[in-house]
Write a structure and sequence with these properties.
Length: 345
């Protein structure tokens, strides 16, 4: 009697365990693999209007999603399931702004089927192979510049030797998200506002000295006309430079070109000079090649500083020299700093 009851209880437990085991095993079962064969259309032009893209392949299911620009910035397009071999989705014109290659794939929701209950639960996803979609450069008009405006003055000009950079607003036509502003041929970080406006970050050293700069815009259709930006005389005198470190250095006679970082109160227009006073003679002054380095731009020196280079020709003879900082000539500048004592030995 008792042995029969134990037998029945054992069979029930084994059945439950087997069912749970089957259920858990089925929960890890994914859908069959999908394949993306080709896209229709396969290309468009930058700036085109939005369109409907068709993904052709195999293994598609309801809930499949077309992925546009696969990667960290991918977009899930609003996808319509047509059949196991075809999906469609609208591609907005915002995804066609710049020329280039876009990787497209199909994401399939995974599934798990319980053998015990017959229900289906989505647990995983899979992504098909990648197919390239080409966005060709537009054959439209090249960009044009009609006006410039600096954030410092609201004019196409700014006082030279400002301690900080500024934002340059470029107004014109035929701009797109691939457009880049250049300052005297060097590209600057550019923000696309709309087809008629861009902004660019101008570095303090870009406007360090009096003169003019050529501003251009380029994109897939070509470069724009050049617009002139002017660096004007500051309304107030520039602050005199000063040196905090180093204040004394020694250099081996016959050394090759010697580079030095100079910390202190400096401006983008501050330059270093090499002063040598021979016995009984007059001080000979010569300019050193000097680079203004903004804060946090040099991993070895986070402070604003100057990088100066002493040529090998100035290190031939054992003698004493000085490095002195200098700003531009009056009316705005003309001041000199304290000196770094240099011993060539």
């Amino acid at each position: 009697m008792y042995s029969r009851r134990w037998l029945i209880a054992s069979l029930v437990v084994l059945g439950l365990v087997g069912g749970c085991s089957q259920f858990n095993t089925n929960l890890t079962t994914q859908t069959s693999s999908s394949t993306l064969t080709f896209l229709s259309p396969q290309a468009a032009n930058a700036g085109d209007s939005g369109f409907t893209i068709t993904a052709n392949g195999a293994g598609f299911v309801t809930g499949a999603i077309i992925l546009w620009n696969v990667g960290p910035n991918q977009v899930q397009l609003t996808t319509t399931f047509v059949s196991s071999t075809q999906l469609t989705a609208p591609v907005p014109n915002s995804d066609l702004a710049a020329a280039g290659n876009v990787q497209v794939a199909v994401q399939i929701p995974g599934s798990a089927v319980s053998g015990a209950s017959g229900t289906t639960a989505t647990t995983t996803t899979e992504v098909s192979n990648l197919v390239n979609f080409t966005i060709n450069p537009t054959s439209g008009s090249a960009p044009t510049i009609t006006a410039l405006s600096a954030s410092t003055t609201s004019m196409p000009a700014t006082p030279y030797c400002g301690a900080t950079g500024f934002t340059l607003t470029v107004t014109g036509a035929n701009f797109d998200s691939s457009s880049v502003v250049s300052w005297n041929g060097s590209q600057r970080a550019t923000t696309f506002v709309n087809s008629g406006q861009l902004t660019a970050s101008i570095l303090p050293q870009d406007a360090a000295f009096p003169g003019t700069a050529n501003i251009t815009v380029s994109n897939a259709t070509g470069p724009s006309n050049a617009a002139i930006f002017t660096m004007t005389t500051p309304a107030t005198n520039l602050a005199p430079p000063s040196i905090t470190a180093p204040l004394q250095i020694s250099i081996q006679k016959g050394s090759p070109t010697f580079a030095i970082n100079i910390d202190g109160s400096v401006l983008p227009c501050t330059v270093a000079q090499w002063w040598v006073t021979p016995p009984g003679g007059s001080t000979v002054k010569s300019a050193l090649v000097t680079t203004y380095v903004p804060a946090n731009q040099d991993p070895t020196d986070a402070a604003i500083h100057l990088s100066a280079t002493i040529p090998a020709a100035d290190l031939v003879t054992a003698e004493s020299a000085q490095i002195v900082l200098f700003t531009l000539q009056p009316p705005a500048g003309g001041q000199t700093s304290n000196a770094i004592a240099v011993t060539i030995q």
